[in-house]
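Colleagues,

For the teaching module next term, I've prepared a clean inverse folding example: a structure given as tokens, and then the sequence designed for it. I'd like students to try predicting residues themselves before seeing the answer, so please don't circulate the second half yet.
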């Protein structure tokens, strides 16, 4: 309790201060954000990690497209992290699966273009 020089008592006041966490986690992709593969190649998702300035390490949930390397296409893998305050962050990895077909002994076809075999060896 406080008093002034004349002995008057001060009125007691309480204040509550709430500090809010409004900063989302930071997601770091393991490996590249864009991956290029050919049909039939193996794909192993390298994943991602997340950290938060309050919570420290945060769990990362993987979603988005399921990469099917038996089919040409563009796939987006989505990583999401949510901290205990509900702040959410996302990061994406794009996986491009391209179809490559050998046309004959002298070249291959890529997206409709015939690419000559540089050493002329043809398929083995």
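(Answer key — instructors only)
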């Amino acid at each position: 309790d406080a008093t002034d020089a004349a002995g008057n008592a001060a009125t007691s006041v309480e204040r509550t201060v709430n500090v809010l966490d409004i900063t989302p986690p930071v997601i770091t992709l393991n490996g590249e954000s864009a991956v290029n593969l050919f049909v039939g190649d193996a794909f192993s998702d390298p994943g991602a990690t997340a950290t938060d300035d309050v919570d420290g390490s945060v769990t990362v949930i993987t979603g988005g497209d399921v990469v099917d390397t038996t089919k040409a296409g563009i796939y987006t893998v989505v990583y999401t992290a949510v901290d205990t305050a509900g702040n959410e962050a996302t990061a994406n990895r794009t996986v491009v699966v391209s179809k490559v077909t050998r046309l004959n002994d002298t070249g291959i076809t890529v997206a409709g273009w015939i690419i000559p075999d540089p050493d002329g060896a043809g398929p083995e």
